[in-house]
Each structure stands twice: as C-alpha cells, then as structure tokens.
Design a protein that fits this description.
Elements: H1 14-48, H2 51-60, H3 64-77, H4 82-97, H5 107-123, H6 128-147, H7 151-163, H8 169-180, E1 187-190, H9 193-206, E2 213-216, H10 223-231, H11 246-250, E3 255-256, E4 260-264, H12 268-273, E5 282-286, E6 290-296, E7 305-310, H13 312-324, E8 330-333, E9 348-350, E10 354-357, H14 371-377, H15 398-419, H16 422-436, H17 442-453
Parallel strand pairs: 1-2, 1-8
Antiparallel strand pairs: 3-7, 4-5, 6-7, 8-10, 9-10
Helix pairs in contact: 2-3, 3-4, 4-5, 4-6, 5-6, 6-7, 7-9, 8-9, 15-16
Length: 454
Amino acid sequence: MELVTDNTSCLTNLSGIQNFILNRNTMQKIVSTICLLLTAATLSYTQELTLKEKALDEFQKEHYHEAIKLLERAVKDHPDDAEIYYYLGWFSHYNAYDSRPLSGYDYSYSQQIFEYLDKALELNPDYGDAKYFYGAECSGNAFTAMQNYDAEKLKYFYKLAYEKGAYPDWLIEFGKNILMSCNENAILFTGGNADFDVCAYLQLLEDFRTDITIIPLGNIDRPWYVKFLKDGLAGCVRNVNINLTDNQIMDIHPFKWDTTNIFVNISSEDRIKFGLEEDHEIQWTIAPDLTSLRLHSKMKGETAKPRTYLSPQRAVLLQIIEDNFSDRPVYFSNFAEPTYYAGLNNRFQNCGIISKLTPVETKQTDHELDISEFEKLLTEENLVNYKNVKDNNFPRISGMIMSGYTIALVNLAGVYKKNGETVKLKELTDLYKNHLKTGLNPDFEMMVVNRLEN
C-alpha cells in the first residue's frame, strides 16, 4: 500500500514547517499502526492455516515426519476427509522410500499406508491418485520381494495393485503399446512407476512380452538390484549380462571420474542396417554426474579442482550397455528424466513413446524418427481405451501420458505435412479427435487440433 501526501504548502513559513513536522510525526504513527495491523493479520493468517495446509508446507520442505504428525492430528478432526487419508498414504510412502532409511521399517508400516489409501478410496472411490499411490506402495513391496527372490510375493503385489484399480484399461493399453514398440528380446529402460509398473504387471500376470527385460533407471544404483538383474528370476524377470563379480556389484559406489570416452561393440545386424565398417564401435562420451566440495589435484603442481564422480546409476548403465548392446536391442522410455540417459540420447531413434539406441548419431538425420514405428503405434486399435482417462483420471500421470501420445502424433503429422501426404494427415487429425482428445485439458487439445488442421 502506498501513502501519498502533498507537503508543498507546509514549507512556506515556520508554522508550516511545524505543521509539516507534526504531520510527519502523525504519518509515522499511522504507518507504524498499519505495519502492526499487517503483522497481526499475517500472524492471524498463519494461525488460521489448517493442519492439512501446514502438513503440505512441511512436506514441500521434505519434512515428512512432521507432515505426517500434522495429518494424524487433522484426521481426528475431519475423519471423513478423503484427501487427508490420501496425503497420509502418500507422505508415509515417501517417508519410507524417498528419504533416508526409515528406522524400524517393516511390513506393518506398509500395511498402514494401504489402510490410509483404502480409507481414501472408501470415501472417494474415484480418487485416481489414491489408486496411483496404492500401486506405488505395491511396487515398493514388489521390489522387496525381488530382493528376496520371492516370485510368489512379487506377483501377489502386482495383482493386488491391479485389483485396487492402479492399472485401469487406458494404462494397460499404454503399457502394451510400450512393450509392443520393442523388438524381440529387448532391454527396455523405463523412467519410474508410471511406465515400469504397468509393464511389469503385464509380464507377471498376463504373460505379455516376457522376452523383454524392463529396468527402471532410477533403481540401478542399488547393488542388490544389479545382482538381481544379473541373476534374473525364473518365470518372472529375464536376466541381463553383467560382467562383474558379485563382490564388485555389492561394492558399487560413486567412482572417481572425469569426462572419458568408452567404446561399445555393436551387432553385425546394426553394421549392415547403418552401413558401418566392420570395426565400427560406439564412442560414448561419459561425463561425471556427481561433484563434491572436496578439492584435489592428481599430480604435483596441478591446480586443485572439485572432485568429480561417476554415480552408481550411471556406472551401472554403462556396464549394462557395454555388456549387452551387441547382443540385444536396447530401448529407453521417452518418459524418463533425460539426465538418466547419460548422453546416449543423441543416438536415439524415436519410435513414438520409446526410443531405440542406435550406433550412430541421429539428430537431424534420416534415423531420428522411425516412421514405421510411429505408424504402427498410432492406430485406432492401439487407442481404444485412452478416452476412458477422463472418467478414471490419475492426475499425477494422465497428463504425462497424454503428452507422450500427442507429441508422437504431432511428430508424425509433421512428416506427413513435409511429404505432402494430405490424406494421411487428415486421418491422423481424425485419430486425435476421436481417440486422444479427452476433454481433460480443453485449451491444450484445441491448440493441437488447430495445429493439425492448419
């Protein structure tokens, strides 16, 4: 708030100056009073924040324990608030899996999370994000089952997630589209729960594309999981080649590293497909992805600089690519965090919602897009259920998946436009209107339609 006064007339004589001084003192008192009132109002607003709002604030600061305590108080006052139970399930899940190890953790803690989410769904059966986190909690337990090589429990938790609605028809369809975009015997690196879990469910419970090894990029920094991938699990998870001893695997840690070139063998099939020489290898420039405050110099007289490291995640990715690329096709989900790709994405051939790793750089070349894969993906048969997302919405992931499909469609439309294929462009526009335009985000969808039509 701005206070404006006209002081010109007060400066013409002594009495005016005195009046000015008096007016100024009065004004200072007014300003002080206003400041006190504003402070009081701010304090009052803070005091009026609900326990739920305070919990959200603590969660944003990653104070999970404090947020949960506030919600436990809030639910006593509002036992019919589905959102509070949802937040209790979500925040408790984060406290167990996304912070430091939770002292005293056992299955009873996980059971409490299930109970919170069950209550949220009892109060609001259409609570999509509560279903999503039910699936995420089942996934956490499934990884514990992997750690124990327990096939029965592994399947049990994915079945439980499905029964609770964590994998609706539109998400099952999405998972099948991901897996069907891979060549036989592929290795598929995924981003996280949104793309990994539904694919794992399809393999474990529907026996769908079990030739593929699915690997969530965020989990390969865990030595036990690397050993699990090396071993595989009969009837559940196909193993990958990892040419490290078990002792080396269990000793995985941040490695001292500076930017270095690694050379990776390629298959004879890729040599023929891309017209490469017999001795051609991938030259992969791998930069460090961790930095410490520690200064060091390797040799006497060298200027000290911050110590850099190769993270366990990047080191394991390097190992898997190095040991498998010449024998098995390798794909990456288009929904992963790009830093996980470790610079490989300049060799990606986009196949729609996943990308295939190639032995050549693809940017602005004929290999950048695999048009045949786009066309196989973007058909009415593969998009029968996506419209149902509006009635069974998971806000945490629905928009991401919608964007993935839409970006693929717009990319293909651009190719048709460039080639003057107006009939195909019209068919693609109709496909979008009939199968991907859901009404979840009308402004965005209208923008896409206008772009396709114009």
